[in-house]
């Protein structure tokens, strides 16, 4: 990395590629006395020690002794700590923005010629799989009155349309969110030779040590999954497979695990049960991004409405 690296006013590196600054992974020893302890702590403001990325402080005395070095990187104008407690609705915005960049779902452009009511049964297919079948007819563009003429109420029609809008493209969307977080928050270096404050994610009082994508299964009823058949072209396909589900995980330095799930309205998965930690017995939270709200699952098993998305 060249010494003259700097960022312009928009945060982009001039003439050089960005370099990812890996977050603190563990606390191994005191940076001053090199003592190992289970009770090591970071600076309460910036969430970092000095130059080492695996060290902290064992006492206030050691932190005071290190202040002359640490103050070079500490301060409100140098580190912007963004808490997932207040930031997770913005992840919903990112997911929705990426959805808008994709193509319109085929089922929204063709007339629905059967009547897939909310209480209608699933269809069993030749391979033994089951899903609610949607029969598509002529191309109608985005004309709402011609799209599903047999819908019992406008409300039912709107709900089905919203589910189709969010069907598919789950992995590309969560991947784009993770890459955006990495490129925008973890490419500002641990030096004071740039004009912008560095940004780091944290949760409660603990920095985020790792984040990425989890692959798993969403537990849903077969009546809440879709299969589509174009009666004109004969094309047949299944909607988003709940057995091939993806969400984002965050792990704090303290060992807490957090999960963010988006685009689950299309499979009617608008509530989640308590998620067990993948790493430890520490507290686990999960944010479930549904159609109109974010559900925060805390220490209790009860999901509560926290904020409109």
Question: Could you please describe the fold and organization of this structure?
Answer:
There is one protein chain. The protein has 2 domains: 1-75, no CATH class; 85-176 and 211-308, no CATH class. Helices cover 19% and strands 25% of the residues. Mean pLDDT is 74; it is low at 1-15, 266-284 and 288-309. The strands form 3 sheets. It has an 8-stranded mixed sheet, covered by helices on one side. Strands 4, 5, 6, 9 and 10 form a 5-stranded mixed sheet that branches. A two-stranded parallel ribbon has the order 1-2. The protein is α/β, with parallel strands linked by helices. Strand 14 and strand 15 form a beta hairpin.
Distance from first to last alpha carbon: 40 Å
Query: What is the count of DSSP helices, taking H or I runs of 4+ residues?
Result: 6
Low-confidence stretches: 1-15, 266-284, 288-309
Q: Give the number of domains.
A: 2
Roughly what percent helix?
Answer: 10-25%
Shape: elongated
Strand arrangement within the widest β-sheet reads 3-7-8-11-12-13-14-15
Count of individual beta strands: 15
Structural class: alpha/beta
Radius of gyration: 24 Å
| Helix-strand string | EEHHEHEEEHHHEEEEEEEEE
- Major sheet summary line: 8 strands, mixed
Mean pLDDT: 74
Strand content: 25-35%
Pfam families: zf-MYND
Organism: Rhodocollybia butyracea
GO molecular function: zinc ion binding
Protein name: MYND-type domain-containing protein
